[in-house]
Amino acid sequence: MSAAQNREQTVRALIAALDDYLSRFNGPGVADVRAGIGRFRGGPVREKAPHGIAAVDHVDVALDWMTANGEAPLAGAIRAAMPYLDWRAYDPYPREIIGETYATNHCATILIGEHGLIQAEDFDLGLFGFGPNILYRDHKHAAPELYAPFTGPNGWRFQPGDPLDWRPAHEPVWNEAWAPHAFRSGNVPFLCVYGWTKDVNIPAEMILCDDWAAVEAENQPLSA
Fold first, then answer.
1. Own/partner pairs for 75-84, CB < 8 Å, 24+ apart?
2. What is the Cα 16 distance to its own chain's centre?
3. Do the Cβ atoms of 224 and 169 come closer than 8 Å?
4. What is the average pLDDT across 154-168?
5. N or C: which end of the chain has fewer CB atoms below 10 A?
6. What percent of the chain has pLDDT over 90?
7. C-alpha pair distances (Å), 212 with each of 80, 117, 162, 221, 222
8. Is 135:164 a contact under the CB 8 Å cutoff?
9. pLDDT of residue 224
10. Residue 32: its pLDDT value, please?
């Protein structure tokens, strides 16, 4: 098998594994994201140079956790594709607002999308992660968004100033267009499959809150 054939086979296997994972769920947004996968997954796999940043180390830790917690096949599919993935930081936010800790400890890779391994118009599917005990501060965006976390627990809120609602791994979250949201990893790095179903090129916006320091200092509940 040539290197190009191996890349294509591995990337398609990962996308199939992610679609299979999402098929476990029937909550809001899941069908929309899976419809996008079905629409675009057959396109050619592009030759893109792989790229890594320091935050990808958190992905390795998350994959170890997945392997130890019943998700070895999915973790294996992600690991197999790592040599072909283009990991980047998502940087539309001023660092003085998003915070240096998050800014330097998160990463994302687009599998299907305008800048993905498979071309798509106004749709993104990818992997997104960040380190343990980090808050992705309150923000909003035009793109309706699905997060399906492989790791947990993670603390979520959907109104600025609300307390965190700690939820386990494998509990998808759907954010409608421009709906406020923030979330915080627990003691395990956050890793998920995400989908943006339209308006993917409109930048996200921060929502200023005065409780970020307190939320960032919060401990993961023992019962979460």
1. 75/150, 77/13, 77/14, 77/17, 77/18, 78/14, 78/17, 78/127, 80/10, 80/13, 80/14, 81/10, 81/11, 81/13, 81/14, 83/50, 84/7, 84/10, 84/11, 84/48, 84/50, 84/117
2. 17
3. no
4. 97
5. N
6. 93
7. 37, 35, 11, 18, 21
8. no
9. 61
10. 98
Could you tell me the sign of the dihedral formed by the alpha carbons of 172, 217, 141, 159, in that order?
A: positive
Residue 220 DSSP code:
P
- Compute the distance between CA of residue 155 and CA of residue 159 in angstroms, rounded to an integer: 13
In the chain, the amino acid numbered 6 is: N
Structure tokens at 93: 């936010």
Q: Edge-to-edge strands of the sheet including 173-175?
A: 106-112, 124-130, 190-196, 145-149, 173-175
**Residue-averaged pLDDT of the chain:** 96
128: β partners: 108, 192
3-49-101 Cα angle (round to 5)? 130
| Tokens standing for residue 22 | 């999402």
**CA terminus-to-terminus distance, the chain:** 46
